[in-house]
Design brief:
The protein is 30% helix and 16% strand. A two-stranded antiparallel ribbon has the order 1-2. A two-stranded antiparallel ribbon has the order 3-6. The chain has a two-stranded antiparallel sheet with strand order 4-5. A hairpin with a 4-residue loop joins strand 4 and strand 5. The protein is globular.
């Protein structure tokens, strides 16, 4: 659940723009399908980054296994953009148990893609706030990140 809270905080980053306005991730992100939102690769996309769906899931490991092995093209296993989730892009050192049909990962991977267009100056500001968030010490896990400084 802590990953969900971190992703929500990142999604709410605001950077000042012109005329007393602010830009958010939605304004700066890569959106492959117009008006559908940002392409964010995250294990939370197995639940379309919907907190209620995640909390209501009584067997998270089984859902991940199903969505990576048998049901990857079903709507319930697609991302919030409606595209299939490639587990190797959201789970590091994955372990799948054939006997119990469950999945585990030693690392959870989250990727945010920003546009490299006329919003680059704002993206730099957004990136600085992103780095502040992911650099905070965590009680239950470590965050390792890579952020490409935009020029």
């Amino acid at each position: 659940m802590e990953l969900f809270a971190i992703q929500q905080e990142i999604a709410q980053i605001q950077v000042p723009a012109v005329n007393n306005t602010y830009l958010t991730l939605q304004d700066l992100c890569y959106s492959p399908i117009p008006l559908k939102g940002c392409l964010i690769q995250s294990p939370l996309e197995f639940w379309q980054t919907n907190y209620d769906s995640l909390v209501a899931d009584d067997n998270v490991q089984q859902k991940v296994y199903r969505c990576t092995h048998t049901d990857s093209l079903k709507d319930e296993c697609r991302s919030s953009l409606g595209i299939p989730i490639v587990y190797k892009q959201v789970m590091g050192s994955s372990i799948f148990s054939e006997n119990s049909t469950t999945a585990e990962a030693k690392a959870l991977l989250v990727t945010y893609l920003l546009n490299n267009n006329d919003t680059v100056e704002y993206a730099k500001l957004w990136e600085a706030k992103f780095i502040e968030i992911v650099n905070r010490p965590r009680e239950h896990f470590n965050i390792y990140f890579s952020s490409e400084v935009l020029y």
